Amino acid sequence: xxxxxxxxxxxxxxxxxxxxxxxxxxxxxxxxxxxxxxxxxxxxxxxxxxxxxxxxxxxxxxxxxxxxxxxxxxxxxxxxxxxxxxxxxxxxxxxxxxxxx
Length: 101
Hints:
The protein is an all-beta fold. 0% of the residues lie in helices and 65% in strands. The protein has one domain (2-100). The chain has no helices and eight strands. It is elongated, with a radius of gyration of 21 Å.
């Protein structure tokens, strides 16, 4: 029988959002935690139970950020220069069982 627990920190500092390095993208720090339990069923057969929590503090973060000209309906014809982004995942809890043989 073995148990383990861990936490990690992922940090992304502010970085350039455009090729000319004129616009700066927002940085973020994420914390994750996980735990695992392993039980030997017999011989070389084990069962693992695990749980992981991502974005432990449930912060709003941006997975991808791009500085470009958007041309959406209702915006001026020449477009609007802005940082567009894909939001990161909120707090996520994942767990499961694994049979190892």
